[in-house]
Fold this protein.
Amino acid sequence: MERNPLVRRLATISLVLIFLVIVAGSVVRATGSGMGCPDWPQCFGYAIPPTSIETLTWAPSKSFQEGQMILKDGNFWVAQVDFTTAEDFNTMNWAVFTKHDYNIFNPVHTWIEYINRLIGALSGLPVLALAVVAVARSRKNWGNSILSVGVLILLLFEAWLGKMVVDGNLVPNQITIHMMGSVAIVLLLLALRARNTKAPAPLPRPVRNGLLFLLLLIVIQIFLGTQTRELVDAALGHDAAVSRLNVIPSIEAMMPKIHRSFAWVILIATSFLYYLRKKHQAAVPGFGALIFAIGLEWTVGVVLYFLGLPKAMQPVHLVLSIGILASISYPLFLSFRKP
């Protein structure tokens, strides 16, 4: 099997950009900017979104292009044709935006969401190049082709799902699928990079199995965390009387308790993996960083729970979980390589 340095470099660049997309997405969720752009792929009908409410305000002798939006009478209206406004508002030139009932313009939220989309679009470039390069050399390494095309398909699916999330005004289940799709992309890119990296010394089977088990637990915990976050968002959005400090106790569903308790399972599994590594004297790349990240993630989780979900800590919590995922999966994928 041929190792392709170009595939490895493109996979690395793609990983960095996907990681930035996840960071940007977590900032979007933490700041409540998910509907900063009510339409997709444009933002209020513009390629570059507005910075002030004046852009979205109707006025006489003002030019609009088809698809551009205004905020009037508590609704977003969409221009049906290119035209210049007359002295009076003419409903024949406009249609009420009906995909959802969100009708707020917040320039900070708009630009946070726009930057998130911009990074997402940028991440598609190395992924597309990766698929082209891998397929062009598919006869020498068919595994590269399958993985790279899989990443491209998943990224296109994520883009389509992003549109569905916006059109549905942040439909809860779609948000979870969106997050798990990002996890799948990260895993595929790590597997692709590992396939094109020189194999290190093989890991003892017990250590490799321990890594695999811990990886499974981390994926489950990310899913549980996403579900918990959706319940938190719903509680904060539906009841103005609920404060961030009391939002977790106010949730009747069991998911937050399961998410919290599952952290103990991960801590126990990590301790057992540490024991296996020491017993077999196994050289696991980045193992010290992995242990530190899991400990830090545990600490951040405690801070979130007892200090009322501080917004600044929520992106840290998510980013750490993806970093832990990568720290486990990459040496695991390398361990399946033949020297």
In short: The mean pLDDT is 88. The chain has three domains: 1-36+106-197, 53-96, 200-339. The longest strand covers residues 75-79.
